[in-house]
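Field: COMPLEX_INPUT
Field: COMPONENT_COUNT = four
Field: RESIDUE_TOTAL = 528
Field: MODE = joint
Values follow.
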Amino acid sequence: MKTHTYISPPLPVAELVLRDAFSRRKLVVMLCSCSVIYEGRSATILGEGERLVIVKPDGAVLVHRPRGYSPVNWQPDSQVLEARLDGDTLIVKSLRAKPRELLEIRVTRVDAIIVAEGMVDNAEFQELIDEAEIRDALVRHPELIEPGLRVVAKEKKLGDAGYADIYAVDGQGRHVIIEVKRVTAGREAVEQLRRYVDVFRRENPEAPVRGILVAPALTEPAQKLLEEYKLEYRKLDLRRVRKILEEERRASKQPSLLSFVKRS
Amino acid sequence: MKTHTYISPPLPVAELVLRDAFSRRKLVVMLCSCSVIYEGRSATILGEGERLVIVKPDGAVLVHRPRGYSPVNWQPDSQVLEARLDGDTLIVKSLRAKPRELLEIRVTRVDAIIVAEGMVDNAEFQELIDEAEIRDALVRHPELIEPGLRVVAKEKKLGDAGYADIYAVDGQGRHVIIEVKRVTAGREAVEQLRRYVDVFRRENPEAPVRGILVAPALTEPAQKLLEEYKLEYRKLDLRRVRKILEEERRASKQPSLLSFVKRS
DNA sequence: GCCTACATGTCGACA
DNA sequence: TGTCGACGTGTAGGC
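Field: COMPLEX_OUTPUT
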């Protein structure tokens, strides 16, 4: 990575720096005073203030205020990027094609710019406990849900309704549709499960079927709704699932945290 | 805004710079090579690579890779921020209290740091076309949904089900529950409306009631589901709504774009 | 503090 | 390409 830094550059200098950076797909970080106009799926106006502006090599644009996680304005990617001096304002325009969205940053003062060229980042990103992993752990260990449960399929397609996380048969031979949530389940999760069970019932009118929502916790309205629909809930012990995943990872000689860091 | 810039500072220098910045709540922008470990609601490992790291005055932390809108790791805010040199690695730790989450950035090389002090940004942010505004426009102009419609309430509470966007009565005196979406409506939107209508029916068993989904477009599965539930759809002409909103804004002498920019 | 619904959500996966 | 569902979603607003 090669970086160039510009301290309080006059706007005409900043214009040239940005143009070069945009055309050569460099990363730009700019501290400046600006106002912003956005027009696309929504439309917003942001008055003058001091901001952090980021333009990435792929055309992603972020305008950050001094607080918080979220950018106040942004463009996930852009097809056209331009910098143009208009009197005493440096106008940065970002145009996105689909959906058609325009972001216009009107810069009145630049405090600092860093341009980075040739940033290299090919590292792997490992997500250790996402919903799919939890589901797969439950598929391998259905006893965590209920003794005697036998998994028939995961991601089972149910007509137009979508995909049930797990489809199983219980100790009494009844069909079981299982919806897994990684976080506290609300009304939406219950509705989702209801939809799957409904479709299964319609497709298999004779078959006895249960619906089980598996989650670390339930909101109170969700519990009421579950009862109303005669669906069931099993508490998911996340700590236990994590432990199992860790053990299996160790057993399969996946890189541990330490070895990963050392290697990279 | 006062900025300080450090080009390729040795790690011990970077450590001091970060410590000072964290303790005095300055904004930090750092281009560096690092690996990242996160542990909290989930757990992730990111190998070594060149990244843009941002630490905001409120403790928000963002780690950006060279592409895309989303940070690869982050902290929406943090209670504890520390920088500590450990051999030839500069460890930046961010601890969030609730939920308890730890972000650890292991920096092996710093290419550039900008520290900004006293960033001032008090500007107003105007959101011009969010869902609430569309809904209010429809409340004022229900004829955009259907002639003869008379609005009774907006954000009408419906038992445990939540809030219906608009509650109205039609030309024949039938009750109408209306759900407004500003983007293409999918299955979820239909389920939401169904829930509202269901609750209304239960609470008013005698009353004839219709459910209308108002959105600029419908996905095909959503349309099927609507028919199945005997609910209705009205296309929302966003352009027309925008026009109406603009005219009303002009009429009420809200600051226009131009006057806003000039004033601020 | 819990819960709900919105968001310019973004993003990946799959038909 | 359209559609769906997860996300460490974040965030605002009610109660």
